[in-house]
Amino acid sequence: MEKDLLKAYTARISQASRSELVVIMYEIILSDIASAKTYFEAGETDSYLRELKHAQRFLNELMATLDYRYEQAYQLMSLYIYINKSILTAIYQKKNDILTEIESILQILMEGFKGIIKEDKAGPVMQNTQQLYAGLTYGKGVLNETYLNPNEQSRGFKA
């Protein structure tokens, strides 16, 4: 994953609710699969495998955090198992064709969770983090992003 994407995801995660975290994880998995497809087309097998294994780690995290008090968790687990098997097939057979189907399934799931975000009134999962205010400043030939919380002098750390 590129550094700029990693930085953007880190900022979003620090401010995200539970349902937003699920959407972010779907986005990361989809990004990894898209990168893997690009690497496959370029013939870069090592990078292809690295991206798929990274996607698989995030998928495993989604599987581990399912709440089985709800029936939908069992249905999601079935989909996650299918996606995981498909990723394993893509890894071991070094085939790219199954990744398109995985992407479409993940897109549908992500859209469903985006609908849940609108109804989710819970605050951010991470507590005691620095409030994120995006601001841009211009440097010599670059655009710098800065974060500021005027009410918090401890920058998220409390003694």
Structural class: mainly alpha
Mean pLDDT: 81
Strand order of the biggest β-sheet: 1-2
The CATH homologous superfamily corresponds to Flagellar protein FliS
Secondary-structure element pattern, one letter each: HHHHHEE
- The total strand number stands at 2
Fraction in helix = 55-70%
Bin the strand percentage.
5-15%
The CATH architecture name reads Up-down Bundle
How would you describe this structure to a colleague?
The structure is a single chain. This protein has 159 residues and is mainly α. The protein has a single domain, classed as Four Helix Bundle (Hemerythrin (Met), subunit A). The protein has helices spanning 3-15, 18-42, 45-64, 71-93, 99-119, and strands at 135-139, 142-146. A two-stranded antiparallel sheet has the order 1-2. Strand 1 and strand 2 form a beta hairpin. The model has no long low-confidence stretch (mean pLDDT 81).
